[in-house]
Amino acid sequence: MGNVCCGGGNSEVLARQELLKEGNDFKKKSAFLGVLSRSENVYLQLNPSGTRLMWRQTPGPSSSEELPIYRVGKICSMGRLDLVLLGQNGQKLLELTAGTMDVRDLWVQTLEELCLPGQENQSEEDAKSLKEKMEKQQDKQKEQYWKDRTEELEKRRRDAEERKKKIGVIGMKYTAQAMVNR
């Protein structure tokens, strides 16, 4: 008969993700002011939840840096060992050189699997949260408008009452004289 596939591809994806969570050594290329390029040894790995890339400089303890997966727009393999992560707008987020082609290819394949479906979900979530924030802001603006409007109307009413009091006393005098003269 033939091969029977029962979702084995999903277990392969998970196995590759586990390898990324263990991490690998890379050389991180960086440019200072776009002119002076330098490279430093870093240990790159995927965080346990699979949502961020974390790296730290390898000789000695240092603070780690992170890059959320949803910010990655494209993963490019350059040359034999280079790996470049580009942002949504095309800017270079991270430029790495792997120790071997196998390591580089593993990272490219797995990051593409993580980024492509996740971006749609993330962009939908971002759109929903942005829409909710906008609605809240509009509600606050409406509330503030009506509060200001009612204060203004109340002030106008008080001013009108003040004018009526001033004119009311004087007006009665002239009304009484007009009635007497009839």
From TrEMBL:
Highest taxon of source: Eukaryota
Residue ranges, compositional bias (Basic and acidic residues): 125-162
Region (Disordered) location: 118-162
Protein name as it appears in the record: PH domain-containing protein
Source organism of this protein record: Phytophthora nicotianae P10297
